[in-house]
Amino acid sequence: MGKAKFSKNKFILNLIGLMVAIFFHGAYDFFLFLDFVPGIWLGALVSLILGIVLSRKAIKSHQNNSHFKSF
User: Is the full-model pTM beyond 0.85?
Assistant: First the structure.
C-alpha cells in the first residue's frame, strides 16, 4: 500500500495490498483458532513466518529502488 502512494494506479495497488493483508491475517487466525485438529497451530506459525519473509523482501526491494539511499 505504501507503493501506491507514489504510483499512478493507486486504486489497484491499494486493493492488492489490502487483499494480501486480509489473506495473511485470515490464514493466521484460521490456523490459530482451529482447535479440534491437533498440531494445526503449525499452520499459524507457517503463515506468520511467510508473512514476515515476504514483508522483509518487499521492504528490501523498496529500499533498493528508493532515491533516498542510506550509506
Answer: no
